[in-house]
Design a protein that fits this description.
By secondary structure, the chain is α+β, with helices and mostly antiparallel strands. About 45% of the residues lie in helices and about 15% in strands. A three-stranded antiparallel sheet has the order 2-3-4, with no helix packed on it. The protein is globular, with a radius of gyration of 33 Å. Pfam families: Nitroreductase. GO terms for molecular function: oxidoreductase activity.
Amino acid sequence: MTLFSAGLLRSSSRSLASIQSWRARPGLNPNLKITHLSSSTSGTCAATISTRANPAASRSAPRSTVPIPPCRASVRSFSTTTITMSSTDTLIELAKARRTYYKLGKNSPVPDAKIEELVTNAIKHMPSSFNTQSTRLVVLLNEKHDKLWDIAIAALGNLVKTGAIPEELWKNQTLPKLEGFKAAYGTILFYEDPAHIAPYSEKFAMLKDHFGPWAEHSNAMHQWFRVGA
């Protein structure tokens, strides 16, 4: 899809004004009729002029194309990524089909290599403000995944011992949920690297308070990519 800036309209107005001025020059036949205007982004223009002295003359009368004074246009064209109906439909269907699954299991519908490929593509292609690329992803599968949730269960279990988490809440809600997560095949951890963001905050001091939220926006896009995949 190619889009054109408003400069095209402005340049067209200048082109017409230039033609009218050219046609009004002394010594030219006042019955000359402009029948076609063409212009290019380089600023050159041409017009097809009817050379008939009598406007009512036959339409088969000869015509010639003559140059007109240059009209320096401010036309700018730029291209954006082509969005096809099928691709937008696919994105919508992915959003509709997204569900949260609570009964997780150790069977994966795709091989480990495919999971790693999807994560690599997310890191490679997801955008970030100022191209900071501060998002970090860690893939944990099989025993490494189990170890992560054992650590989480032990850490929160200590909070039960100190009274920070009520024991009833722990037994009836928190622990079953953590064990449900552990029952899954793998885990993908999403991080932001503050050390990587800091230089941008220093370089663009006026925007330093925004880089944190912008990084979170990029992180969310990485997560959405994984959900859609």
